[in-house]
Amino acid sequence: MDEGCGCGRVLCAGEVNGRVRREASVHRHKGGERKIPPEVMGVSWVIETERSQNSIEQLIESGGGTKIGLFVVDSSTYRPVDQLANNIGQLNVLHHSNFPESTFSLAVTATNDPKQPPPKSISDRGFDLILSKLSGALQMDSSGKFDASGTEYSFKDFRVRVGTVTQGGSVKGVVVEIEYTPTWVANQASMMLSEFINMFFPEQTASKPEIITKPTSDLYTALDTLNQYQQIFNRLRKKA
Amino acid sequence: MEQADGETIAPSIPTTSYQCQELILFGSLRSEHVENLEARLAGLCDKSCQEFQEHELTCTLRVTPSATSLSSQSNVTVRLRRVFNFDIMNQTANKWHMRYMGMPEPTVKCPVIVRKVIDSVMHSVNMMEFIKALGLRMEYEYITEGKVYTCGKIKIVLNKLKKCESPGRYDVSHVKPFTNAVLVEVSTALPDGVEYMQEAKQLRAFADQLLPLVKMEKIEYWKK
């Protein structure tokens, strides 16, 4: 990895899979101004909390976390045009600053059949440009754009991202992403994440996402993290 | 200065590195003569050539003209490609290359076709459903196999096209050769917005070196 993957950006399947992460920032930060080791991605648990961003940051810092930088997650909603509204549902397109060259798309099907997993994909950012060509079907709803931005902490094997969620400039809530980095098998990380949550956010223990509790040894991908963010944004939208 | 302007785009819009201008010419020859062309290309091109076998789906977004939209938008076509004979274990079946091709530019003077292309590499466990969710519908699909040569910036692709007789079934008994011909494409990709005339002339000159084996033409495929 260190020598650069030599893969050329577009064909880096690892990036597409979401398993090789910070490709861009690792290359960019080769000089080492950010002292974080090149790492593979882990398993995340994203929570929404009533506490303020400041109080959580103090809590993490007092617990021994070190600030390593900033992070941003954004989510745009594309709604179908009137003629297609019966056939297709809306599409949520997300970006995460930890995966700077990737676009995460989560579709909501019009039929909403619970047996069918919702269509989703990980792509490079060229997809955003293609999407703009499909404006005959899906158009961006600029008022529905959510942003979460804040501080990223390193905490031994954990990465903690604390951010404030805004929609069109108005504050909607606070999210915390806890990532356990040494594994990408969801149920292996399950206990460690529970312990962390118990220690810092005891009121959230019940909100464990299904993807982490599932007993299968499916590999976890970055899309699963972004899906958790999207669920939180959906809840915050309803809360108004 | 142009580049500096390009970088002032809002951060949510990706840089134009995924977007390029493609200069392209097409030609075809009967498959029994392809050996001669391969020998010629081996002499002209860079040392290695790569064989490929890919599955392409062409999907269209049909735009129904409505009273509310004044703009006369035409149908949008998106192509999806993946490696054929995919390896289930490595999930190569789920890795796709999505490509949007714009309408060719109306250039009478330019000796080659110029069109805008946007590429994206995607991974999805349910690509067909995802495509449907984008409002796209599959028009046709085919399998293409052949060889790719490069000569500096120029890419030469020899395609043998095969049709899929029933959709969704790709075993040997359902995939039949389309014709007894090999489709030849020579192309160059340039960054978006740069002057292309000089490269176009170089591409034309290269294509002429393949004469008399194959005649490369600026085929006006968009006229029906």
UniProtKB/TrEMBL annotation, chain A:
Stretches assigned to coiled coil: none
Pfam families, A to Z: Med20
Taxonomic lineage of the native organism: Eukaryota, Metazoa, Ecdysozoa, Nematoda, Chromadorea
Protein name: Mediator of RNA polymerase II transcription subunit 20
Annotated GO MF terms: transcription coactivator activity
UniProt KW Oxidoreductase keyword: no
Cellular component GO terms held in the UniProt record: mediator complex
InterPro entries given in the database record: Mediator_Med20
Biological processes per GO annotation: regulation of transcription by RNA polymerase II
Family, per entry: Belongs to the Mediator complex subunit 20 family.
Keyword Lipid metabolism in annotation: no
UniProt keyword list: Activator, Nucleus, Transcription, Transcription regulation
Gene name per UniProt: MED20
Signal peptide from the UniProt entry: none
Role according to the record: Component of the Mediator complex, a coactivator involved in the regulated transcription of nearly all RNA polymerase II-dependent genes. Mediator functions as a bridge to convey information from gene-specific regulatory proteins to the basal RNA polymerase II transcription machinery. Mediator is recruited to promoters by direct interactions with regulatory proteins and serves as a scaffold for the assembly of a functional preinitiation complex with RNA polymerase II and the general transcription factors.
Assembly with partners or alone: Component of the Mediator complex.
Compartment list: Nucleus
From TrEMBL, chain B:
One example GO MF annotation: transcription coregulator activity
Pfam family, one: Med18
InterPro entries: Mediator_Med18
Subcellular location: Nucleus
GO biological process: regulation of transcription by RNA polymerase II; termination of RNA polymerase II transcription
Protein keywords: Activator, Nucleus, Transcription, Transcription regulation
GO cellular component: core mediator complex; mediator complex
Domain of life: Eukaryota
Subunit: Component of the Mediator complex.
Family: Belongs to the Mediator complex subunit 18 family.
Reported function: Component of the Mediator complex, a coactivator involved in the regulated transcription of nearly all RNA polymerase II-dependent genes. Mediator functions as a bridge to convey information from gene-specific regulatory proteins to the basal RNA polymerase II transcription machinery. Mediator is recruited to promoters by direct interactions with regulatory proteins and serves as a scaffold for the assembly of a functional preinitiation complex with RNA polymerase II and the general transcription factors.
PANTHER family the UniProt entry points to: MEDIATOR OF RNA POLYMERASE II TRANSCRIPTION SUBUNIT 18, MEDIATOR OF RNA POLYMERASE II TRANSCRIPTION, SUBUNIT 18
Name under which the protein is recorded: Mediator of RNA polymerase II transcription subunit 18
